[in-house]
Amino acid sequence: MSGEVDIAIIGGGLLGLATARAVLRAHPGASVAVLEKESRWGAHQSGHNSNVIHSGLYYAPGSLKARLARAGGEAMIRYCEQHGVPVKRTGKIVVATAEQQLPRLDALAARGRENGVTVARLSRAEIAEREPHVAGVGALAVADTAMTDFGRVCLALATELTDLGADLRTNSPARSFTTSRDRTVIDTPDGEVRARIIVNCAGLHSDKIAEAAGHRPPVRIMPFRGEYAEVRPARRGLITNPVYPVPDPELPFLGVHVTPMLDGSVHVGPNAVPALARQGYRWRDVDVRMLGELLRDPAVRGLARRYWRYGIVEISRSLIWPLFVRDVRRLIPEINGEDLRRDGSGVRAQAVTSTGELVDDFVISRTQRAIHVLNAPSPAATSSLFIGSHIAADAFDRLGLADIARTVRESATGS
After folding, report:
1. pLDDT of residue 415
2. Does the model's pTM come out above 0.85?
């Protein structure tokens, strides 16, 4: 395909692919290239997560995140059903394991109802009836939760994009950016791509891509690794549907949860520990250059001052296996260390402000020729089809196609 395109999307995860889909469905005459540095689609965050389609329980009522999660989750379920991707409406329970967590649980229930989520308060006896091996003093039953395989969703999107005429390129990192008249010229191993608009959906590398494209990002990406364990086959029957703890409202993480997957396996996790490389899936994955940059960054020093106690707890739980098992036993007391085995990890791109605060909201920076998605926290996977529409509308605005942009926004929840 020609190197001249209207829109070049950097990053072939859920958001990049969903944005390309939204563009081409709204404007079939547009030319779109998707550049992915890995050899497959959804190779990082999109393919290394809990595979949960979230309900919208956690987000501030009336916020874009809440609206996107509610309708976006339903849209994702429909997409999976239409494209042969495994999906199952499972529901979940959020469990308070101590009396002092009950006020937070009640606040979460009120928030969920305001967001239109179907929730029911469970007593200790009702928890035992629903999940007899789970311990808790109270819980919320959340009906509007489902499971899928987001890696398979990425493959379905790529197949659809091929039919829509997109130029899909794996093994094509964006190595540098220059400007030529009204185009941004992207150097790739397959040659130059000359785009009127670039959309940066590079996840773990999104801040670096923004800098390379001449934009100073307002946040810094800090990689956090989430480690998982798997319940051994003989003990998988201890739970039937996802079980979550009450989250800490001070942190943008949901805590270690227990999730039966669609293939019959049961995963436990993730925790949240600082990764030592942007693709640091193991402790031995170390990027000395990145660490040097982070140690010199005031944002990271501020992060350490704010969250050092939490960091010590998480790192200890990662390195000392009995501590991880102890936390799981708070939810399922019958679990022991022999029932669990380590089972991979994912790395989350977490935006940090200049003062060291963890950002729990979308961060999208826009310039005349570029859109940089610099933070896409949960429910980004759940809501990726609608988020892609919002990004596509921004791109149409920059192409001077205001009517199409307006139509796309009106069709996306939260407009």
Report:
1. 40
2. yes
For residues 343 and 267, the answer to whether their CB atoms sit within 8 Å is: yes
Based on the domain organization, do 377 and 350 belong to the same domain? no
Structure tokens at 46: 């999109």
Domain co-membership, 166 together with 196: yes
Q: What is the pLDDT of residues 77-89, one digit of tens each?
A: 999 999 999 999 9
Res 8: pLDDT? 98
Lowest mean pLDDT among 135-144, 193-202, 292-301: 292-301
Structural domain harbouring 207: 4-46+151-219+361-411
Give the C-alpha separation, 64 to 363, whole Å. 12
**Count of Cβ atoms closer than 10 Å to residue 309 Cβ:** 8
Total domain count for the chain?
3
Compute the average pLDDT of residues 202-211. Answer: 97
What is the pLDDT confidence band of residue 248, given thresholds at 50, 70 and 90? confident
The CATH number for 189's domain is: 3.50.50.60
What one-letter code names the amino acid at 149? D
Residue 337 per-residue DSSP state:
G
In our burial notation (b when 16+ CB lie closer than 10 A, e otherwise), range 56-90 reads bbbbeeeebbbbbbbbbbbbbbebbeeeebebeeb
| One domain for residues 172 and 303 | no
- What is the C-alpha to C-alpha distance for residues 152 and 145, in angstroms, rounded to an integer? 18
Q: Which amino acid is at 234?
A: A
90's CB contacts (< 8 A; 6+ apart) are 145, 146, 147, 241, 242, 260
**In 122-269, which ranges are continuous DSSP H helix?**
124-130, 150-164, 206-212
Give per-residue burial for 336-369: e unless 16+ CB within 10 Å, then b. eeebbeeeebbbbbbbbeeebebbbebbbbeeeb
Does residue 270 have a cis peptide bond before it, meaning omega lies within 30 degrees of 0?
Answer: yes
Annotate 366-397 with three-state secondary structure: ECCCEEEEEECCCCCCCCHHHHHHHHHHHHHH
Based on the domain organization, do 234 and 349 belong to the same domain?
yes
Helical (H) or strand (E) element with 80: helix 64-82
